[in-house]
Automatic annotation (TrEMBL):
<feature type="domain" description="BON">
    <location>
        <begin position="49"/>
        <end position="117"/>
    </location>
</feature>
<dbReference type="InterPro" id="IPR007055">
    <property type="entry name" value="BON_dom"/>
</dbReference>
<dbReference type="InterPro" id="IPR051686">
    <property type="entry name" value="Lipoprotein_DolP"/>
</dbReference>
<dbReference type="Pfam" id="PF04972">
    <property type="entry name" value="BON"/>
</dbReference>
<protein>
    <recommendedName>
        <fullName>BON domain-containing protein</fullName>
    </recommendedName>
</protein>
Length: 124
């Protein structure tokens, strides 16, 4: 009788322990999936935030009478804006950087603006 009871108890233990272990494994999988989703949401938010910052900078540059005649490329990554292009003076380049820095959401600015000097026209 004791032998049967022990076998019965061990069997019940195995029966109930199996699903408990599976639940723990499922919880680990759920936690990993949750972290992956959270990471994806964060990246999506960063993308949309960066896109909004880029749009605001471009809009502000296009509305400036001195700057709008130049063609600048604006990109944003994690709030850091990179401005590329050519300007005919240091004053214009600085104006572009100042406008960019003053734009909402900009954390830092990478200045990749090249100053090009206009060559004097040859007269004959």
């Amino acid at each position: 009788m004791k032998k049967c009871f022990i076998m019965f108890a061990v069997s019940l233990g195995i029966i109930f322990a199996g699903p408990a272990l599976a639940v723990n494994d499922d919880e680990g999988a759920f936690n990993r999936a949750g972290k992956s989703i959270d990471s994806g949401i964060k990246k999506t938010k960063e993308f949309f935030t960066d896109s909004a910052i880029t749009a605001r900078v471009k809009k502000r540059l296009s509305r400036d009478d001195y700057v709008s005649v130049f063609n600048f490329t604006v990109t944003t990554s994690k709030g850091v804006v990179t401005v590329k292009g050519e300007a005919d003076s240091e004053k214009i380049a600085q104006r572009v950087i100042d406008i960019t820095r003053a734009t909402k959401g900009v954390k830092n600015v990478n200045n990749n603006i090249m100053i090009i000097s206009k060559s004097p026209s040859s007269s004959r």
